[in-house]
Amino acid sequence: MRILNCKTQGLKSQITNHKFQTNSNDRNSNDRNKKSVCNLVLGAWGLFVIWCLVLGILLVACSPKVKAPREKQLTIWHWMTDRQDAFEELARRYEEKKGVKVKFELYAPSDAYRQKVMAAAQSNTLPDIYGILGGKRFFASFVKSGYVADLTAAMKANKAEWESRFFPKALKINEFSKDNEFGVKPGIYAVPLDVMNIQMVYNKSLFKKAGLDPESPPERWEEFIAAAKKIKGKTGIGGLVSGWGEIWMIDCLANNYAFNIMGEEKVMATIKGEVPYTDPAWVRVLDLFKEMSEQGVLVEGIVTMVNKSAEQMFANERAAFAFNGSWCVNVYQGMNPELDYGVMLPPRVSSQNPMVIWGGAGSSFMVNARSQQKEKAIEFLNWLTQKEQQVFLSSQTNNLPANKKSLSDISVVLRQFADDMDNTTHPNIWSVSEYPLVTETFDKGIQSIIINEKTPLEVAKEVQRVKEREMKKSRE
Amino acid sequence: MSKRIISLLKHSFMILISAACIFPLLWMISSSLKTQSTIFSDMSLFVLRPSWQNYITAWVKGNFGIYFLNSVFYTVTIVGGIVLVSSLAAYAFARLEFPFKNFLFLLLLAPMMIPIPGGFVALYVLLNKMHLINTRIGYILPQINAGLAMSIFLLKSFFEKIPRDLEDSARIDGCSRLGIYWHLCLPLAKPALAIVVIYNTLYVWNEYLLAMLILSDKSLMPLTRGLMIFRGEHVTQYPILMAGMCIATIPIIFLYLLMQKHIIKGVMAGAVKG
């Protein structure tokens, strides 16, 4: 810097002299300035043009080879990374059989995929087949905008042969009933590819070590508490693990028990505001979590645990039970292929009502109503959901097939999950929906009960207060 | 004695900070050598039976051959474009007088406040109308645009600090405006240019969302696409993903080491000015 300063000092005196000489020629100096600005602009443009030319040459040199026009192939957009290889294999088989080229294009993660679908819809460049990620309202907006083909006629053709392949609950989520709140023409608008449900899994090896029968998991609440305590006493390993840091999973189990203790009608009546959350049946639901906590059935830190950590814990045999979705089969397979486990429904508290679990369609495909190859696309989806293809997909990806006729050919654990598909429900298919703030207060309240911060009755009263406030707001 | 203790404390603190910075990198390398089952059970950093196969799987299954070249091409072109356009614009804002200069400068800086994902839908519609969807140029141009604001801002403040006397003397020697920019200002702004290059290289090299939006042809995708296929909806193949990340990190580490001297200078200069 010092050298630079010296240099600039010397230059400064030269420049002063120079300025003195040129003071009398101001006009000439201005002209020179203008010229130099012009030179700079011209030079800059020159550089930019050269760069553009270089870029252009590179682009031409590196551009992909000419491809077959898009009309000759079916294009499918999806976000399911772990299914891409299986999809590509099925596409190869379909081309071999029917002579129609199918291209599965993967866009993951799901957030990026959702953005892409929204952008493509706005510019009318959606592919022939695609999936819509989002709630039913979002799905309905696509149908109403004319981006989703009505598949009812195809499903009902040949004595409803296509429709009858699926679990009814899987179709329900892709269906708009008569007088639906979205104003969509009633019908089936998507094809379920697989299904899912959320149940309990238990470690058979730990059952054996504790002297319990691994083929007879607990069916009743008291048996469950006793089994968990026995396993902990004999092996020192905790009872139930789940990702209850993600509160929707707490909501899921609490709803299972609400349906079991009070029945569907009363649950719906509560959502409608006809039954308060302070009703003894709801307090009993909340009390179950207190009981699990007090009896030491829950693993430590369950309230803040994400499901990935919970899965890892169960796979490493550090918990006897886990509350998880059917996708766990794939997860446990990757984490510990030797893990010996079975599937069981959450143990019943009451025998008056059935144990209802959350479940329904896993992922579904829609046909673009504006596609020039609509018929070909429908034909492909029909083929994709046939027994053979569904069994193949299930074997490759460990997901539950949507085709109920393929259950005999899938793995035992998956079949155990699939056996209870008829007992599934999901808030998305209920005729009424709870206020999000009420659900949040309810779920967070359960977390407080587990850490002994609040009593079930306190939580019930708090939830009811929020419910009344929300109802008042919506009336206003 | 007290000086020694202070020095010891200082060094211990710095060692701790360095260890915290290096740990994720070591964990990534260690995980890349484990298997899908041991990664969840073996928590140690040192792998007794390293699985080198993960690197081969990542390279072959992730199509890294094509994606790697694509990423190099995109990074060089985009960063080159950003450096060229932003340095010229920054020089003009720092040295030339023209109407609405400050307003135009603020207008150029405004995009800094809008992240690219915020304008995804609009960008997609625009590129579609220009028939630039699924083309390299459609991926390159928005990224050059995205990198300009920050780079112009950085370079302008650097050019403003170069003594005008130096330019005047060069002019006396017969140097044109462009000559001054090219022979005098640009070389003096090397530390700032290094910051611009490394900052934008990191951004472009790690970019993924825009590629997902604009490109659909596998042969046009960047390296991050190759990494994404190991991340499933519910299952992630961590060892292979980590091996892929190790491969993807090497060029960036190499670039950083290459430009380390200039980067430190640039950061220091910025600190003094601040």
Task: Provide keyphrases for this structure.
heterodimer, A: 476 residues, alpha/beta, D-Maltodextrin-Binding Protein, domain 2, 2 domains, 5-stranded mixed β-sheet, globular, disordered N terminus, B: 274 residues, mainly alpha, MetI-like fold
Summarize the structure.
Helices cover 53% and strands 12% of the residues of chain A. By secondary structure, chain A is an alpha/beta fold.
Largest sheet of chain A: 7 strands, mixed
CATH class of the largest domain in chain A: Alpha Beta
- For the record, what is the CATH homologous superfamily label of the domain at 65-224 and 261-273 in chain B? MetI-like
How many strands in all of chain B? 0
Strand-and-helix sequence of chain B, N→C?
A: HHHHHHHHHHHHH
CATH class of the domain at 65-224 and 261-273 in chain B: Mainly Alpha
- Helical content of chain B (DSSP H or I, runs of 4+): over 70%
- Judging from the principal axes of the Cα atoms, what is the shape of chain B? globular
Distance between the termini of chain B: 36 Å
Number of helices of chain B: 13
Tell me about this structure.
The complex is a heterodimer of chains A (476) and B (274). Chain A has 476 residues and is an alpha/beta fold. Chain A has 18 helices and 14 strands. Chain A has helices at residues 2-22, 26-62, 84-98, 110-122, 136-144, 152-160, 168-172, 204-209, 221-235, 247-272, 280-294, 307-315, 328-335, 374-384, 387-397, 412-419, 436-450, 456-475; strands at residues 73-78, 101-106, 129-130, 175-176, 187-188, 191-192, 194-203, 238-241, 319-325, 341-344, 357-361, 364-367, 400-401, 424-425. In chain A, the strands form three sheets. In chain A, strands 7, 8, 9, 10, 11, 13 and 14 form a seven-stranded mixed sheet that branches. Chain A has a five-stranded mixed sheet with strand order 2-1-3-12-6. In chain A, helix 11 (280-294) packs across helix 18 (456-475), helix 12 (307-315) packs across helix 13 and helix 17 (436-450) runs antiparallel to helix 18 (456-475). Chain A is globular and about 65 Å long. Chain A starts with a helix and ends with a helix. In chain B, helix 3 (53-61) crosses helix 13, helix 7 (136-161) runs antiparallel to helix 10 (190-206) and helix 10 (190-206) packs antiparallel against helix 13. Chain B has a domain at 65-224 and 261-273: MetI-like fold, CATH 1.10.3720. Helix content of chain B is 76%, strand content 0%. At the A-B interface, helix 1, helix 2, helix 4 and helix 13 of A face helix 4, helix 6, helix 7, helix 8 and helix 9 of B.
